[in-house]
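tool_log.txt
---
The assistant was asked to compare two proteins side by side. It first ran the structure predictor on the initial sequence, then on the second. Raw inputs and outputs are pasted verbatim so the downstream comparison step can read them without reformatting.
(1)
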Amino acid sequence: MSNCVQLETFKFKPASNLDVGADAFFGCAALKTVDLGADEGAAGAGAFSGCTALTEAALPKVMFTLEPETFLGCAALSKLNVPEELESIGKSCFRGCEALPDLTFPDSLVSVDRYAFPGCAEGTFTFTGDMPDFAPAKDVSASFAPDAVLCFPFESDGWTWPVCKGYETKIVYPALDNVFNDLKKDAWYIPSVQHVYYTGLMNGAQ
């Protein structure tokens, strides 16, 4: 089905399980919406790569892996659900998705490969669990554009100043949400010293 230049919408029949092959819709430049219509499923590498007109993708409710280059170059993609129980995001999965909406990832997410989100400059990415393993070697900058906003839970493991240096960040903690939103500052929780640091205090602050 790749390179079907006149295909504008595609909806799979509801199913309990669905497996979309690699490069299935590659280069379908007119495709605007796709609904995978399954409770659980998978999509191969590059499944929607090069679908430059794609604005909306409905993924299966449960999906364990987003393969490499799944949405590579889908610059118009502005509506997307994040599957439950997602465990990994492959290399260049959302690279060049300039209109990508704010996304919230489940605490099951354990790995994010390099170049997963470059070019998604407007995005706010909320992680509900500990810091995933960012390739290479927990280098957040290899996965996100410099303008990305990263949100993470209070007292979660892995999210530290050295790891996320240079990014606007927010701590997700119910009792403090309004405070952080009002201040609109970067905030850091460092378990070893039990302090919340703000951007303006980072240099030599105690």
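(2)
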Amino acid sequence: MDDLKIDLKSIIGFDLAGSPKRETGYAFYDGKRLKAGYLYGDEEILGLVMDFNIVMIDAPLSLPKGRESLESLGPHFRECDLALRKAGIKFFPLTLGPMRMLTKRAMTLTSIFEKQGKKVFETFPGAFYDSVGLKRKDKDSILEFYRNLNLPIENRFYLQDELDAVACWISGVCYTLGRAVIFSGEDGQIVFAGRECIEFLKSRF
């Protein structure tokens, strides 16, 4: 992994939950192994993120242009959302029910992270899984994919949140390498690892 010549230890991925009562998955590289786990409250997240410079979050980090808040009336989709839809990638609109709580929490945390000087990016494990031919909720296949990629990941049972956080971390690696897929617009962007980057990483992890 050192052959990549980037600081893998500067990246952390979060599969953020909308509520602090539900598991938020995380993943990062400690120099020897890829660590994945889960936590709950904002204070736990803020404590963990201190040592990282690049934060990848599976949650909307911005509102559609023309929409002042989640509570007000306005557009439901950002330009990057429309790009996802055009590519045939299914997703939940950020104005849909529970997604509102997730978006609000993600935007609040992002504001704090950015004030700390961190680079924060929205990512989407579903888009990553689709691009490499994985079923989004097939944990066994996802874990096997990670092992075949030679990720130094522990051999144990994983929650879906943890596996999704690993996908977020991989997307951060691809972004840092300049090889990520980026759907962007003036009201936000979504960054994720695509097939081309995965093929590049196969011989380097």
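---
observation on (2): The radius of gyration is 16 Å. Residues 111 and 120 are 9 Å apart (CA to CA).
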